[in-house]
Structures are given as structure tokens and as C-alpha cells.
Amino acid sequence: xxxxxIAVRNILRNRTRAISTIxxxxxxxxALLIGSGFMLSTYDSLQEIAKRVxxxxxxxxDESVPAQGGVDQQLTLPNWQxxxxxxxxxxxxxxxxxxARFEGLIRHGHNSAAFFGTGVxxxxxxxxxxxxxxxxxxxxxxxxxxxxxxVVLGTQLAETLSATAGDELTLHTLRSDGQSTEVMVRLxxxxxxxxxxxxxxxxxxxxxxxxxxxxxxxxxxxSIYLEHYEDAAAIKQLLQAKLEGVLVQTWDQRAELYDKxxxxxxxxxxxxxxxxxxxxxxxxxxxxxxxxxxxRDEIATLGALGTPSTRVxxxxxxxxxxxxxxxxxxxxxxxxxxxxxxxxASLMMPAPPGRSEGYPIYIYISWxxxxxxxxxxxxxxxxxxxxxxxxxxxxxIAKALS
Length: 402
Description:
The protein is an alpha+beta fold. It has 2 domains: 191 residues, no CATH class; 179 residues, no CATH class. Helices cover 52% and strands 20% of the residues. It has 13 helices and 12 strands. The strands form 2 sheets. A 6-stranded mixed beta barrel has the order 2-3-8-5-7-6. It has a two-stranded antiparallel sheet with strand order 11-12. The longest helix is centred in the N-terminal third of the chain and has 40 residues. It is elongated and about 100 Å long.
């Protein structure tokens, strides 16, 4: 009789113990796959947010060079048009967005509030945000090449000012020479990020409006969007070799939220993974040890007939591996069905700290990831069965048969 059939029959001799072990491993694997699928989807979402908000490559003024006073502390990058013109010749570049940061006061009637503003290219800015920036009543396109330039406000800032689309507002700020300046603007619409700190105090205007307000053609940063984000390191190296007095960074160097969340999730799911692997190890060790104890007479008989001990004990390891294969197959099916059910249900996570709204739960389903995880788990099963077999290998033939 083949080695394989003997192992199958031995497993079926005690179906209850085998089924309980299979269920323990299957549920543990399913939990591991679902948790890691959620973790990976969260990582990708945070990466996408960082890439869309900041750009794949960011050009800034070198911070090691002392900044001047006034608004020059925020508008520090001169001659950015030359960098932009040169980059347009590179086929890897998709978009180049200049951004100018400034701050001041905004007034609507008797209401006023401090703001943090960004001068942007209105034709391109909202396109890069995708689903991570919700807009309301924004004119398309909203331009400032008219007597009264347009502005878009964070939803909470507009609520503070009691302003609605079409209202006239006044922006107050300081020029680079320290002189106070103001400009009348029309509220073209609202945007919502889900982050109260941004929605309470931020606004966007056209770059030309910032130039009029501050009397400077400088910007704060140049955000470069690529066809493939994998080219970010190469573009960074190219710009660093050509440009002096600027700081070139890739998206991951500025993704503080991504780094913090990833570190936290790595710890959480790392501990969960270790616990599941320990449970699997103990479950299979207990199953094999108990099977060897109950079948010690059989082991002694085979030994008395001259059967090599390695063959006897290899059969127990094979039994464990077969249990592992069945359990991991069942676990993958459970994870697949559960992940699809969760994705179709459109469940929402509660709002995390620093956010005003939750986000949808999505579980990644990747068969290569499933298979790799299952192989690792089967390897743990094989190792646990080897340890259990080795620790219970010595059987006194005379005593067992007496």
C-alpha cells in the first residue's frame, strides 16, 4: 500500500481530531489573509493619497540656504518656469503643477477668519486629487483672468464665514516688502478633504492671484506627476544633477502619515500573525503527539517487523502535511468568500483620529499572496510535526507489546 494512502487512512481513523485541527488552521489562515488584505489595501490608499496630494517628485528650495523674511519664507522657489519647460520634454512626465503657499485673513461681511492658502493651476489641480477631494458648486473651469478672481474654500471655512458660492470675499495678506495688501475675490465653490484642520482653514486661488497679492512670481514647490511612479527616483537623480540650490524629494520622503500608519499596522498585524502561527504550531504538535501516543502499539509492531523508524515517523509528518494542505485550501476559500462579502457590503470604518469621516473597508484578494501565505503555513505544520515526532520517537518495543 502506498505511503500516501496509509497516511489518508490514518487521518480518517480519527476524524474528529483531524477535523478540529483542520478548522483551527483554516480559521487562523483566513484571519491572517483577511487582515493582511485590509492592511495592504490601506497601504495602497495612503500611498495614493500621498502621490496625488504632493506629487511623485517635489522640487523645493534647499532648506540649508537661509530664507529671507516676510512671505519669502513660503515663496522660495524662483525660476521655476525654466525647470517646468525642461521637464516637459521628458516623456515620463505627465503633469507639472506649481504651488504657492501663503496665509492671511479672509473676510465676508462682518465675519473673518485666518486662512492658509495655496496658489494653484485651476485647470489641473482638481484632476490629480481624484476621489480624495470632494468639491461642491465649483465652476469649471474657475479662472482669475477677470476683474474679480475666484477662490475655493474648505467647507468648514466657508461655514465659518457664512459664505456660499457666488459671494464676494476679501483676502488680506502681507507682501514680500511687508506692506499690507488685499484683493476682492468671488467664491467659486467649496472643497472637502475629510480632515478638519484643512477644511477649517484652507483655500485655493489661481497662481496669478497670489502674484498680485504678494508681488512675487516665486512659488513654494513644483509638484511633478509621472506616468509611472516607479520613475520617481530616476527623475529625482536627474534633477539633482542639473539643478543647484534646490531640494528634490520623492513622494515617500514626504508621506509622514503613510509612514506612521504603516509602522503601526506592521506591529498590529505582525503580532496577530505570530499568534496565529503559534496556535497552528501547537495545534498540529498536539495532534501528532496524541496520534503517536494512541498508536504506540502499532509503532512497536512495525519496529518489531523491521520497518525502518524513519519510514514510520515520516508517515506522521506526511499526515500532518496532508492536514495542512486541506486546512489551507479551506482557509483560502473562507478568506476569499469573506473578503468578497465585505467588499460587496460597502462597510465603513469609523473616522480615524484627525479625520471627520470614515472610509470604506476594502480587502485585497491576491491569489499569489494567498498561495505564498499557505505555503509558509504548511511549512510551519511540517516543522511542528517533525518536532512532535522527534520528541515522541523513542518507543520501547518490548514494553509496548507486552
